[in-house]
Specification:
mainly alpha; 6 helices; two-stranded antiparallel sheet; 2 strands
Length: 211
C-alpha cells in the first residue's frame, strides 16, 4: 500500500503540473495574436474548449507523450518491492527497511525530475501548437503557419538540439517539415522521439510560430 500510494502521489503531482503547463502554453500562444481567452468561442478569440480538454487527456494517458516517465516509475516500483521482500526475508527492522526504501527512491529522483521536467515542457509545447492550429484554421485566406524551435543554450543542451538550432532557417518551417527535420537529426544522434514537439529528457526547447 505504501508503494502504491507513493507512485500515485508522484503521478498526481506531475499530472497537475502538466495540465497547468498545457493551458499556459495554449494561452501564451493565443496571446501572440492579441486575442482574449474566453469561455465561448467567437470570431475574435481562441477558446480553450472541451476538444482541448480531450486532447490534453489523450496526451496525459500516454497516447502522444513518451513513456519514459511510466518506465521510470515502474522501475522504482520494482525496486521498492524488492527492498520490501528482502527486508521480510532477512527480518530487518522497520527503520532499516524505511532507510533502504529511501535509498531506492533517491536513486531514481534524478531520473524522475529530468523526465518530469521534459514532459512538462513537452506538454506546454503541445498546448502552444493546439492554439496555433486553431488560429491557422480560422484565418481567411488560409495560409499554413511556419514554425521554429527556440533551443535554450547551456551545458545541458545536447548535440542534437544544438544541430537543430543551426538547421532551422530564419523563415521557419512548415510543421511537417519541422517534424521531419527533428526525426532526421534525432535518428542521427540515436534518439527515440515522440509527440509533436519531439523532445527528450533534459531539454528546454520551445515551439514558436514565425510571423
Amino acid at each position: 500500500m505504501l508503494l502504491i500510494g507513493l507512485v500515485k502521489k508522484i503521478k498526481e503531482i506531475v499530472r497537475e503540473a502538466q495540465r497547468k503547463s498545457y493551458i499556459h502554453g495554449f494561452k501564451s500562444a493565443a496571446d501572440e495574436f492579441n486575442v482574449k481567452i474566453t469561455k465561448a468561442a467567437d470570431a475574435v478569440s481562441i477558446s480553450f474548449t472541451q476538444e482541448d480538454e480531450n486532447a490534453l487527456q489523450a496526451i496525459q494517458d500516454g497516447k502522444v507523450q513518451s513513456r519514459s516517465y511510466a518506465e521510470t516509475t515502474n522501475k522504482l516500483a520494482i525496486r521498492l518491492n524488492s527492498v520490501i521482500a528482502e527486508s521480510i526475508a532477512e527480518g530487518r527492522s522497520i527503520n532499516t527497511t524505511v532507510s533502504e526504501m529511501q535509498k531506492a527512491v533517491n536513486m531514481e529522483t534524478g531520473s524522475l525530475r529530468r523526465i518530469a521536467r521534459t514532459e512538462i515542457i513537452n506538454i506546454g509545447n503541445e498546448g502552444r501548437l493546439a492554439a496555433y492550429k486553431k488560429e491557422e484554421a480560422a484565418r481567411r485566406p488560409k495560409k499554413p503557419f511556419r514554425f521554429t524551435l527556440v533551443v535554450a543554450s547551456g551545458l545541458r543542451t545536447c548535440d542534437a538540439h544544438r544541430e537543430l538550432a543551426t538547421r532551422i532557417p530564419a523563415k521557419g518551417l512548415l510543421m511537417d517539415e519541422l517534424i521531419e527535420l527533428q526525426m532526421t537529426v534525432g535518428s542521427a544522434h540515436g534518439m527515440a522521439l515522440s509527440g509533436n514537439s519531439l523532445l527528450h529528457p533534459n531539454q528546454r526547447t520551445t515551439l514558436m510560430r514565425v510571423p
